[in-house]
Write a structure and sequence with these properties.
There is one protein chain. This protein is of the alpha/beta class. It has one domain: Aldolase class I (TIM Barrel, Alpha-Beta Barrel). Helices cover 52% and strands 17% of the residues. It is built from eleven helices and eight strands. An eight-stranded parallel beta barrel has the order 1-2-3-4-5-6-7-8, surrounded by seven helices. The chain is globular. The model has no long low-confidence stretch (mean pLDDT 97). It binds erythose-4-phosphate. The site of erythose-4-phosphate (E4P) has 11 residues, from helix 7.
Length: 217
């Protein structure tokens, strides 16, 4: 399973990329606004730090505008993935950009039917927003399960990118449900490797080792 960072803060992305465990990055207009950085400059810095796919969202309201923006974004770096909304205009733009060889991520997916259309439009990735579905009283992980079954039954190659991740349980459950990738806020990436029993166990091992007076090197 691929793990992406859901962030537009290039310095933080660079730091976490040093783990070697980050396969890509997703951004959205809200994350760009929160970062305070100029969009294209931030994208170039992120693309230089990460070899894998970096999603950059087009914001126009019609397909012609989305296509024009998509072409500009795709030209910024070889690993840009153009993010498009799951609207009819976004799907039209996805189909055309995909035919031009541009990688696409169809975002704001909340139903299996929408995911089916994204795959038919040739999307490289579809982003089901599981946290926002949970917030609305539905089961976000179940959506991943349903999309996985549809894509497998019909041999669609679109990758399922679990988005709107709220906690480490979402990462585990998305992996179990068959998501190809998950995009994690930096805090949740860190929370994946942190466990109180690991800390306690390590402290005890270190204390006992120190008492031996030995050295490995
Ligand atoms: C990523 O592609 C999405 O835009 C992001 O995960 C949305 O997360 P949120 O629901 O926490 O805003």
């Amino acid at each position: 399973m691929l793990l992406f960072l859901d962030s537009a803060v290039s310095e933080e992305i660079k730091t976490l990329a040093e783990t070697g465990l980050i396969d890509g990055v997703t951004t959205n207009p809200s994350l760009v606004a929160k970062s305070g950085a100029p969009f294209k400059d931030a994208l170039k810095a992120i693309c230089a730090a990460i070899e894998g796919p970096v999603s950059a969202e087009a914001v126009a309201s019609d397909s012609a505008g989305l296509i024009a923006e998509g072409r500009v974004l795709a030209a910024l770096a070889a690993n840009i993935v153009v993010k498009l909304p799951l609207t009819v205009e976004g799907l039209k733009a996805c189909r055309l950009l995909a035919r031009e060889g541009v990688a696409t991520n169809v975002t704001l997916c909340f139903s299996p039917g929408q995911a089916l259309l994204a795959a038919k439009a040739g999307a490289s990735y579809v982003s089901p927003f599981i946290g926002r579905l949970d917030d609305a009283g539905q089961d976000g992980v179940d959506l991943i399960r349903q999309i996985r079954a549809i894509y497998d039954a019909h041999n669609f190659q679109t990758r399922i990118l679990a988005a709107s991740i709220r906690h480490v349980g979402h990462v585990r459950d998305s992996a179990l449900a068959g998501a190809d990738c998950a995009t994690l806020p930096p805090g949740i990436f860190r929370a994946l490797y942190q466990h109180p029993l690991t800390e306690l166990g390590l402290a005890a091992f270190n204390k006992d080792w120190a008492a031996t007076g030995q050295s490995i090197l």
